[in-house]
Amino acid sequence: MAEPPLPRCRRPLEVFKRFSGNPILKPLRGSPWESRRVFNCAAFYERGRIHRVYWAQGEDNISRLGYASTSDGFHIEERLKHPIFQPSSSRFEMYGCEDPRLTKLNGKLYMTYTAYGRTLRWRKTSKLRLAQIGLTWISLKDFLEKRWRWGPRIYPLPYVDDKNCVLFPEKFDGKYVMYHRIPPHIWISYSASLEDWSKSFHRIVMQPQEEWEWVKIGSGAPPIKLGEGWLLIYHGVDRYFNYRLGLALISKDDPENIVKLRVPVLEPKEPYEKTRNGQGIVFTCGAVPLDGEIIVYYGGADRVVGAAKADISELLSLFEKKKLVSPAKQF
Fold it and tell me: Which residues are 59's β-sheet partners?
C-alpha cells in the first residue's frame, strides 16, 4: 500500500542535502537501554571532532542519554556502550530525560533537556506525566575526558508544560537568555543567573503562522552566531502532526528582533523519516557550523538519527528574498 502524501503546504526549499549514508545512528539490538529507538541529538565541535549527545530508549521505555563522535561529521567512529546521563529518581524526571541541547558558555557545557516526571495531580491510578525544562552542566574538560560529573539539576519553570529550551552562548545586556516552548509559541526568558530563573522575565517571540507550523513551533538547535546575526533552526508541526524544519534569523544585539522564512527547509520524505502510519518527522536538537557549511542532526520518525548539510551563504541569501520572509510574530 502506498504511503499517504504529506498535507499540502508551501513548497519546501531544498537547501539541506541529506547524507547518503543516513541514518547515521540506529538502535542497538540487545542493548539494555537503546534497543528500541534512538532520537535527535545535541552536537558541538571541539578538538577536531563533532561530539554528539543523543537520547534513546530500551525495553523499559525510559529515556537516557548516550554519546557518539565523528571527525568528518557523518561517520560514527566512537559510540559508548553505557549512558552518560540518566534520569534521577525525583518526581521531576523519573520517566526520562529527552531532547538534549548543548551550549558552550563560561568554560562549561550547559545542557538543557526535557524532563519527564509526575504532575502535581499525580495519582497511582492515573499516572499523569508532565514534560518540563531541565538544566545542568559539566566542565568542558570533564566532558572531553569522559568523566561524567554533571552538576546539579535545575528546573527553571517547575510544573509548567514546557519543552525545546535553547540557551544563547552569550549574554545580552548582562543577562543570560533562553528560548523555550510553552505551546504553541516560542517564548524568551532573561536571567542574571544561570542557576536561578525564578525571577526571569518571559514573553512570546515567535508564533505559528504558516500551514506547516499550524499546531505549534519549537526551537531546534541552539542559536548559531554568524556575521549577519544568529541563525535559529526550529521545527513546525502541521495539523496532521508532521514535523518539518524551518529557519529564523535573529538580530545580533536583540534576541527579540526575529524574522523567519515562510517555507520549511527540510521536510520528511525518506522512508526512515516516516512512521508506519505515514506520519513524517524530522526534529533537531543540534547543528554545527563547519568549513562554511552547517551540518544539522535530526531524529527521523522517532527511531533513528540522520544528518544533512547546507551552505551557510546559501541559507543567509534566502533572507534577502522578501516574499520568503515574515516577522516571527504578528502581535
Answer: none
Closest CA to 53 of 39, 43, 45, 61: 43
What's the CA gap between 307 and 16, in Å, rounded?
9
Q: What is the pLDDT along the chain (331 residues), one digit of tens a residue?
A: 444 455 555 667 889 999 999 999 999 999 999 999 999 999 999 999 999 999 999 999 999 999 999 999 999 999 999 999 999 988 889 899 999 999 999 889 999 999 998 776 555 544 578 899 999 999 999 999 999 999 999 999 888 899 999 999 999 999 999 999 999 999 999 999 988 887 777 899 999 999 999 999 999 999 999 988 999 999 999 999 999 999 999 999 999 999 999 999 999 999 999 999 899 999 999 999 999 999 999 999 999 999 999 999 999 999 999 889 999 987 7
Task: Specify whether the backbone of 215 is left (phi greater than 0), alpha (psi in -120 to 50) or beta.
Answer: alpha
For CA atoms 239, 113, 56, 72, the dihedral sign is positive
Question: Hey, what domains does the chain have and what are their CATH numbers?
Answer: 17-327 (2.115.10.20)
Element (H, E) at 97: strand 96-105
Given a contact cutoff of 8 angstroms between Cβ atoms, the answer to whether 7 and 239 are in contact is yes
Q: What is the pTM of this model?
A: 0.93
User: How far, in Å, CA of 276 to CA of 3, rounded?
Assistant: 9
Q: Say if CB 247 and CB 260 are below 8 A apart.
A: yes
